[in-house]
Amino acid sequence: MAHVDSAERTLEATRRLTRRGSTIAGIGRSIPAKVVTNRDLEGLVETTDEWIRTRTGIRERRVAPDGVATSDMAVEASVEALTDAGLEAADVDLVIVGTASPDMLFPATACLVADRIGARRAGAFDLSAACSSWAYGVAMGHAAIASGGAQTVLVIGSETLSRIVDWTDRSTCVLFGDAAAAVVLRPCPPDEGFLAFHLGADGAGGPWISLPAGGSRLPASAETVAGGDHFIKMNGREVYKFAVRAIPRAIERVAAAAGLAVDDFDLFIPHQANVRIIEAAAERLGQPMDRFFVNVERYGNTSSASVPVALYEAVEQGRIRPGDLVAFVAFGGGLTWGAAALRWTDGSALGRRAGTAL
């Protein structure tokens, strides 16, 4: 009988876990104060404000001050997110940092962040999927909660891309900026919070966005430094063609996985790389642009921080209300892409304040 009781308890515990989802309980961000406008760039490279705006939609971007690293902004965003969730760092079970510009190859930036905020009992690791890193990180954080392995997961997207941009290369230096944002994930019923994820990759397109040197293939040397191989390299034309296909496809697939139609979503929050990519994706999906949140004009492409920074502002502006269906979608080097479907539960104090202000 004892064996039967034990088996029944195990079965019931398994059933509870399969009924467990995750939701966003808090959100925070870190935005550098320094603004670099298109006019500023006219003095550095052969370009114009009009050329940048008409091709990308970007008007300005933020640049972290000297001495500020990816972990510094990640810490600031994390502290705000935990405060927003009404939690302490000691509550955190897992820290995931998505980044393409870590403080160093190792230790992981996530370990540095966990130590500095006081999350001493948390597991911590970095996730590298370029601009899709935060979307991948949220999927991993959700899986940890759904499996019962964690109760509280901190997922951060943080970038100091200004450190790996060649400021003499007009094809890339006009595009990127620095920022960080973090979310706190907590358990919820499976029909709330995150409903589905879709992740994908195509390594054949890896050379289209890369940082060639500094790894085992091209270790740092006088030659790699002289050749500029420690800066971002990008084939803009190929990336554009990939992105306008990847965004609508990922949204369609995550909608299907959640048992939804694309028309069911109240708001789409895409990776903020180029407004023309977003417009092309919206047209392919048959959706009006007013259902896509866009802030690329003020920040440029902040890689893994792009989607969570946009989410922060959408919540702050009251664009998302309890019960709304939201689709996140990102694409990046790898090539990678990721999407998530979320039913907003307004666990965030920031969201509740925005709702009160409406």
In short:
Helix content is 38%, strand content 22%.
Describe the structure.
- It is a single chain.
- This protein is of the alpha/beta class and 358 residues long.
- It folds into two domains: 190 residues, Thiolase/Chalcone synthase (Peroxisomal Thiolase, Chain A, domain 1); 158 residues, Peroxisomal Thiolase, Chain A, domain 1.
- It contains 13 helices and 13 strands.
- The strands form four sheets. The chain has a five-stranded mixed β-sheet, with helices on both faces. It has a four-stranded mixed β-sheet with strand order 8-13-12-11, with helices on both faces. Strands 2-3 form a two-stranded antiparallel sheet.
- Helix 5 links the parallel strand 4 and strand 5.
- The longest helix has 22 residues.
- About 2% of the residues have low confidence.
Assembly type of the chains comes to single chain
| Helix/strand order, N-terminal first | HEEHHEHEHEHEHEEEHEHEHHHEEH
Widest sheet: strand ordering:
1-7-6-4-5
Task: Name the overall outline.
Answer: globular
| CATH fold type of the largest domain | Peroxisomal Thiolase, Chain A, domain 1
Number of DSSP helices?
A: 13
* Strand runs, count: 13
The appropriate CATH architecture of the largest domain is 3-Layer(aba) Sandwich
The percentage helix is 25-40%
User: Segments where pLDDT lies below 50 for 5+ residues?
Assistant: 10-17
Q: CATH superfamily name of the largest domain? A: Thiolase/Chalcone synthase
Average pLDDT number: 93
Structural class: alpha/beta
